[in-house]
Design brief:
Blueprint (H helix, E strand, L loop, with lengths): L8 H16 L4 H6 L5 E8 L3 E2 L3 H11 L4 E4 L6 E2 L4 E8 H29 L9 E3 L9 H10 L13 E3 L1 H7 L2 H11 L6 E5 L2 H10 L3 E5 L3 H11 L4 E5 L7 H7 L3 E3 L2 H4 L6 E5 L3
Parallel strand pairs: 6-11, 7-8, 8-9, 9-10, 10-11
Antiparallel strand pairs: 1-5, 1-12, 2-4, 3-5
Length: 285
């Protein structure tokens, strides 16, 4: 499986710096009291449940910022599926440094692996040969969007617009504020770059007709049931891309893809992913 590019190293470094300041800003009182400065050690980060691993670049950066002399080995690549007991990474060096880095490294790896695992579960439901994309949304943890979007890619999914400046997406409150679907789309087409598509969210077949008549390039069927999605795709008849969003769980993915959805956007990939369990175990204990 071809994975997307890793987040920029400067972005990862800034995120890690904030996390370490939060956890290690006043030092590690327990470790300094219990562990001699000369003690060396090694630990393995391993799966305690079935999961798709993600987070190696972030774990490396945590180790680098805590102690540049720590050795970090990735046993598997990001996007690899692991079973309970499988090792993902090994770290070695000063015991104090390993203990200081442990929680922040695990927090990142568990969060990103949870997202990658959930995404893989959704993508696995697509019928073989389907061109439908499973995507994330902007419902990401503040400050962690670059990492969480990377985890979605590692799980086999795609990314939606990166931020508010990336694309035009007219939602219900835009329609309310501008006065109508036709007016919102008309103004968007007049103002948006010619290279961009205009997406309009609709919550009924009546609104869908209005969006199509106004020239939307992408229509987002929000909280449609399966039957209305199928009717909506027939109504669109190739005039626009069809995105389905809202209350989509993995059990609906195959049905929506077969109905003709081009995109299935799922906020749960990042706002409430399945929890996975990773641990960092001291070797030789």
């Amino acid at each position: 499986m071809k994975l997307g590019m890793q987040p920029p190293t400067t972005t990862v470094a800034a995120i890690v710096r904030t996390a370490l300041e939060e956890d290690l800003g006043r030092g590690d009182l327990t470790t300094d009291a219990c562990v001699d400065a000369s003690t060396q050690g090694a630990a393995s980060m391993g799966a305690r449940s079935v999961l798709v691993f993600c987070g190696a670049p972030v774990v490396r950066e945590v180790a680098r910022q805590v102690d540049a002399l720590l050795c970090v080995e990735a046993v598997v690549h990001d996007g690899a599926q692991l079973s309970g007991g499988d090792i993902a990474m090994r770290l070695s060096g000063a015991a104090r440094s390993l203990l200081a880095a442990e929680r922040v490294a695990l927090n990142f790896a568990q969060r990103l692996s949870s997202i990658a695992t959930t995404t893989r579960r959704f993508v696995a439901e697509l019928p073989q040969g389907s061109t439908t994309r499973v995507t994330d949304t902007r419902k990401t943890t503040p400050g962690l969007r670059a990492l969480e979007r990377y985890a979605v890619r590692c799980g086999g999914g795609h990314n939606h617009r990166e931020d508010l400046g990336a694309a035009v997406l007219i939602k219900d409150n835009h329609i309310a504020a501008s006065g109508s679907i036709a007016r919102a789309i008309s103004r968007a087409k007049a103002q948006a770059p010619h290279t961009g598509r205009v997406t309009c969210e609709v919550d009924s077949l009546e609104q869908l007709e209005q969006a199509l008549s106004a020239g939307a390039d992408v229509v987002m069927l929000d909280n449609f049931d399966d039957a209305d999605v199928a009717r909506g795709v027939q109504l669109v008849a190739g005039r626009a891309l069809v995105e389905v969003s809202g209350n989509v769980d993995a059990s609906r993915v195959a049905t929506l893809a077969r109905a003709g959805a081009d995109i299935i956007s799922v906020g749960a990939l990042t706002h409430s992913p399945d929890r996975v369990d990773l641990g960092l175990d001291w070797e030789g204990a």
